[in-house]
Amino acid sequence: MPLLLFVVAALALAGCQGKVQRPACPAGQVCLEYGNETEPLTLDPQTANLITEGRIIGDLMVGLTTEAADGSPQPGVAQSWTTSPDGLTWTFRLRDAKWSDGVPLTADDFVYSYRRILDPKTASIYAYLVTLLKNGQAVNDGKAPLSAVGVRAIDAHTLELTLEHPAPYLPELLMHQSFYPVPRHVVEKAGDRWVTPGTYVSDGPYTLAAWRLGDYVRLAKNPQFFDAAHVCVDRINYYPTADVVSAERRVQRGELDINTTFQSNRLQHIQAVMPGYARPALVLATYYLSFNTRDVKSLQDIRVRRALSEAIDRDFITGKLQRAGQVPAYSFVPPGVHNYAYGAAARWASEPLAQRQIEAKALLAQAGFTPAHPLKLEIKVANASETLLVTEAIQADWRAIGVEATIAQNEGQIAFAAYRDRDFQVGYMSWYADFNDPMTFLGLLKSDTGAQNYGDYKNPVYDALLLQADHEADAGRRAQILKRAEQLMLDDEGMAPVGFSVSRSLVNPRITGWVDNPLNNHRARWLCRQR
Length: 531
Known about the structure:
Blueprint lengths: L2 H16 L12 E5 L15 H10 L4 E3 L5 E3 L2 E6 L5 E6 L2 E2 L5 E2 L1 H12 L8 H4 L5 H5 L10 E5 L2 E5 L7 H4 L10 H7 L15 E7 L3 E6 L13 E5 L4 H10 L4 E2 L7 H7 L4 E14 L10 H9 L3 H9 L4 E2 L24 H14 L9 E7 L2 H15 L4 E7 L1 H10 L4 E7 L6 H4 L17 H11 L4 H17 L4 E12 L3 E2 L15 E2 L2
Parallel strand pairs: 1-12, 1-13, 16-17, 16-18
Antiparallel strand pairs: 2-3, 4-5, 5-9, 6-7, 8-9, 10-11, 11-12, 13-19, 14-18, 14-19, 15-19, 20-21
Helix pairs in contact: 10-12, 16-17
C-alpha cells in the first residue's frame, strides 16, 4: 500500500475507534446505558440468584415495600401496614396497582407468589428467606401443603402475613426480590417462558422490551406503574461488562453512563482522569472463601481449614493490592449492620502473619500434609479481573505454607452454578446483605439454608443459637446471641473471610439521583440523566 493511502486508512481507522458507540435515544426521551458485569440467567424474581440479575429485576418489579433513593424501606405496593402486639401478624393495605398489561394487582397475587417460591418444585435458592412465614419451612420441605403458608388475602387490597417468629426487620426484608409478586395469570399460562420479552409482565417502573443474549437487556418505562409520573428515565440498556477495564474506558468515552464496578487498584488513575466518576463506599458485603466440606475429605479437617485461613495476608490484599477502601475481614458480619453486638473474630486474628504461617504449617503437618506430601487444592472463581487478583494473592500465600493451589476461572453464571451443585473444592465469592440485619449473613450458614450454604457448614449448636435469636424479643439480648453464634462458626472455621467490600461504581456526573448507601441499591426510578 502506498504510504499516503496507508496514512489515510490509519487515520480513518483511528477515527472509527474514537467514535462514541452509543445507541440513538428517541427524541424527547431520556436513555440510560448501564454496565452490569454479567449476563443474567433469568429475570424471574423467585429463581434469580445473582446480584446482577437482582439489579434488573428490581427495576422491573416492586414488592410490598421498596427502596428509597438512599436504600431505606418505603411503601411499595403496600401503602401502609400494621403489626400485632406479639409481632407475628402483619396486615398490609395495598394501593390500587396494575400489572404492565393493565390487569389489577391484588393480594391474591402475593399469596400465589409466596406459595410459589416455597413450593419445592420451584427449587428457589432464596426460599429460605421466605420460610420466615408460618409453616414456610414445612412447606418448602414438602411436609405441608402450599395452603399452609402464613399468607392470606383478606380482600383484594388487604394482605395478611403470619410469621414463625417476630421480625422487626420485615419491611427491609420485603424489599428483596424473593418477596416480589409474580403475575399468576401469565406464569400459569406461559410457564418458564413468562420471563421472555413480549410475555414478561411486571408491576414496577419498567417493562422488559428486549433481551439480546450476550449484548443487552432493554427496559422501557411502564406507564401502568403507580408512580410513573415521577420516573425520569424512559429507556435502559443493561450490558454485560465482565472486562471492567474495557467498561471503564466505555464510561470515559460516554458510551456507558454507569458501570457497577471498577478494578480497585485503578481508583487513583480513575480519579485523576475521570474526576467525579468513581463512587467507592463501604457497603454491607464480605468476600470470602467457602470450603466444600461435603465432598473434599481434606477440607473436613478443621486443622486444614484453619491453616488455609490463617495463611491469608488480608492486609496486603486490601491495603496494597486493592487499595479502594476495602477492610481486612476476620469475621463474617461486616461493619455497619444494624442490631448487632460486634466483637466476634477468628481466634488467631491478632497474631502477626509470620506467626500465623508457622502455625499453619504445623497444622497441615498434623493433618498429614508435608513437603513430601503437599496439600493440593483448586480454587474455583468467577472470571473477573478483581477476583483473579485476589485469588492469585491467596494462591501465593498458600504456596508459602506448602499448599499447591490451582485457579479455575469460569464465567460468573457457571461458577455460581458450580458452587450451588458443590462442583468445587474452594470457592471465592462475595455476600451482599439482602437486608440490614446480621441474620442476612449468619443465616447463610444454617444447616437447612440449602444451596447458598456453599460449604455445607453444619453445627446443631449454631442452628440452635440462631433459632433462639429468632425468638428473642429483647434487641440487646438477641444481638449477643447472634454474636455467640458467629464466634462459634468462626471457631469452626466454617468459612474464611477475606475482606469487607466497597461498592465501586462508575457514575457519569450527568446522572442525578445516585445516593451511596450500605445495601448498594440504586433503583433506576430515582435516576435521571442531564442532557
